[in-house]
Every structure is written in C-alpha cells, then in structure tokens.
Amino acid sequence: MRAKSPADVRRDALAMVTKKVSEGCRSCADGYADVARGVGASEQEIGEALSSGRGVSRRDLLRTALVAAGGATAASTLPMATVLAGSSSAVRSTATLWLAGRSPDSDSLVNLIGFSGQAGLTAQIAGVSPRTVRSSDGRLILAPGGIAGGSGVGSQLVAYDAGSGTQLWSIAGASLATGGADRTDHETEPYLSPDGRYLARLRSMWRQFGSGGSKSTPPRRDFFQAIEVFDLTSRRTAGIYVHAPIEAQRVSAEHLVWGADSASLFEFSRRFDGRFSTTLTELAVGGGQLSLAGSLTSNESDGTLPVYIAPDRYTQRVAPDNRTLVRYAPGPRVERYDLRSRTFLGAAALDEPLDESAGKWIPRPAAAIHPAGSMIAAANSSTGRVWLFEAISGKALGQRQLPGGAAPPRESFRSASRASLAFADLGRRLMVVDNRGSQGGAWMLRVPDLAIEGRFLPDQPLSAVAAAPDGSALFALSRSARRVFAGDAAGGSSASSDSFGAAEILRAGATALMGD
C-alpha cells in the first residue's frame, strides 16, 4: 500500500474537519484540524473547512484559530474573551500553569494550554509530542521531535516561553542510522537534570531487515539505544552515546536517572535472554561529550538493581548524597538502592489495604519527590492515607489518615494520577487531592510531620494539583467539572475558568501526560 503524501494527508484531514463539524462533533473537528496543521495547512484553509460545515459562527472560528503546530496563539485568537485583556505586561513564566490534553483522534500529539495565577488563559501550544516537558525552573516548555529522512532519524528540541508560549529557539540533534532497514521504530523519552541545565533523551531504535514473507527467510531484527544530551544553557548538543545493536527480543523497559550533581547519568536496560537481567550503565557528562564511566549486568533474581517491569515512568530521584536512588515502586513501597556499590538498601512497604479483586483499576497511591530531593511522599487520594520518607535513610518521617469516611472514589482509575499530590511553598507543604466520594478539595499538610494546615477548594471535585514554579500561586484541575482553579500561595482567594477538557497538569520537571 502506497503511503500518503503530506499533501494527501492535508487534503483528507481538511475534508474530515468539514465532515465532523457538519456531524456536530466539534472536538473531532479540532483533532483533524491539528492533523492538517501538522502537514502544513494554513489557518485560512482550516477556517474555510470549518465554515463549510453547518452552524459555524465567528466565535467558533476564533476558538479553533491555534497557530501552526507548535506555535502560540495571540490573545485575540484564544478561545476565551477574558485573557488578561486589560494587561499590558507579559505574564511571568514561573507563575503560570500549563494543562495538557490529547487530540481526540490521535495519541501522537497533545495540545498545551497556559493559565495565569488568576486562572486567565494566556497561550496555547498545539500539536506537540506527549513527551513535551516543562523545565525544572518552570521557564521553558521543551518539545522533542524526530525527523525521518534519508538513511537516518534525526532529533530536534524546540523551546517555548512558558509565559507567552512564544517559540524561543531550537536545537538540531544527531541522526541515528537506519542501516537500510525495511522497517524502523524510533522512540524517545526526555529526562531533565536536577540543576535544569541539561535535557537527556533516551532514544530507542528497532530495525527490521527483510519482509519476513516466508518461513525459510525470516526477517532479521535488531535494537539499539542512544543517549543524547542537550545543553539548555548554551543551546547546543552536549554529546551522544550510542550502544552497539543487539539481536534480541524487544526490550520491555528502559529508564534513565540523573545523578544529583547533574554530571552523571544512570541507564537501566532490561532484556530477556533465557532469563531477565538488568544492565546499569553510568555515563559522565561534561566537556561536550558523554563518556562511559562503568557498566554492570545483574540477574533480576539477585535483587541488587532496581527492576523496571514496564515502560511507565517511575517517580524516582538520586538523593543529595549522589549515590542513593529512591523510587516509588508497585507493591506499593518506597525502595532505595546504592548505585555506587550496586546494592539494595531496603524498602518501606505502604500499609495500604488494596482490594486486588478489582484488577488493574484499583486506585493506588501516587508519589512526589521533594524539590531538594531529600524526601519522597506518597498518598492515596481514594483512601486518604499519606506517607513521607527521608530519601537517604528511608526513615518514615510522617504518616497521616486524612479526616473523612471511606467512600468509593469519584475517579476510579484516574485517581492514581501522579499529579494528585504536590509539594508547595518551596517544599514546606504537601498538597493531597481528596478523591473519596463527594468529598473534594486538596488537603494542605505541613512538612515533615504532615500536620493538617488547611484545605484548598474544599467544595470542588479536584483531580490534580500543582504549585506555580515560583511559589506565587496554587493551581488545581477538575476533570469532571472541566474547570481549572488558581489561588494565592496560602490557598486563599481563588478564580476559575474553563479547562477545555484538558486531562493533566504539565508540572515543572515532568512530561505532558506522564510522571517524573
């Protein structure tokens, strides 16, 4: 089957925009409009496609007038009329909230929406990767991308201002060779360094040689990884390390974690060759290059290295001693490993009774790392239980059962969102969403003893919470009410506006629809 050209995709996507508007599915039309933008359709073309449908008003056109893929809207084209209309000053990037929502017809793109500390809509960035990440200091939105062409797959990183959504700069990365493969699959995951200077991308390439049309000539498949680092300060690449290809079963889980000094990277690679094993590779970052500092392979049964049984992102961090890895793992429990001696230090089980009969949709605890990396918190919004542990020693610093009786969760499977708890007030408070029945709001707990200090928006059915990167405001998202809320740093006066169906909060240091 012949692959469609960009022109064909644009034509068909514009036709579907018109069709979906005429059928009354506006969100579907918006999704196809995003696809059309991604292959070069102009805003005029999209507007004409919308107006060809039935019942499209001028306001409808303005609601869909996002800029070309990856750009930001001007205030006049934003879907709300109350976008800081009387303000002549720019919104401070570190005082904003960004929400993420997937395109209704595609899992390959997300749209981002920015809000001010008064819940006013400030900007939109359309058609970016779900791996888009917000910088640790909150100033930048960083969108990774891949560029296929010729004999390789290249990489790119585009930076946007988190206040205005304006594109600031881009960096072109290295190209990974396809080697003449008949089929390829390229995936990438971004990881920010603790000091915010670097962004590492774990790039994975699967290649198939031959069509595999007959049993006598099965296709040959291989796999290789590359770790590429971008320097966000100098705006250039800081080196790439490419592993040799291996002929092996598709790897189920690959993970990176930065050292606390932002000068080392630890890569965990899990593979199966008769039995499962994990390889820990340490890379040194500096001087514009990545160099191998050490490598060790261990059988999973030995228990000396952390096991990553799925490609899901884990809430984890190397503690300030630059050797202790602390992470929240299924169980649920908090685990610690010494990455220098390659030893398991112990685990603290969360005494959380879970009804396993409910299967994979059981509401489970989520976790958050303290901004200084010195503590890890866990909370289950559906049972009201909260825990806090010291990262290096694993010591339990506090445990709290929040007031209120047991009740079925409002959001049965989304209650495990990693944004259902967040540190605020520069790490001096912990906010925990209450997801028990009709109970709402987010509890505000003092760190480290978890004493209750108040409740943010107690009458609202919240789904996720976050603090502005500079600590100037508190934000919350309600999926059921389709509202976004903003309050002052103390959790006092608040404002709200339409969230436009956004699914998640893009937190500083995290990706658009994933965890840390």
Tell me what the structure shows.
The chain is mainly beta and 516 residues long. The chain is built from four helices and 33 strands. The chain has a domain at 6-63. Strands 4, 5, 6, 7 and 8 form a five-stranded antiparallel β-sheet that branches. The longest helix has 17 residues, at 6-22. The protein is globular.
- Mind summarizing the main beta sheet? 5 strands, antiparallel
Helix content: under 10%
Global mean pLDDT:
82
* Rg calc: 23 Å
Number of helices: 4
Q: Looking at the structure, what is the overall shape?
A: globular
| Beta-strand proportion | 35-45%
**Straight-line distance between termini:** 40 Å
Structural class call reads mainly beta
Q: Which ranges are low-confidence, i.e. pLDDT below 50, for 5 or more consecutive residues? A: 54-89, 356-360
The number of distinct β-strands equals: 33
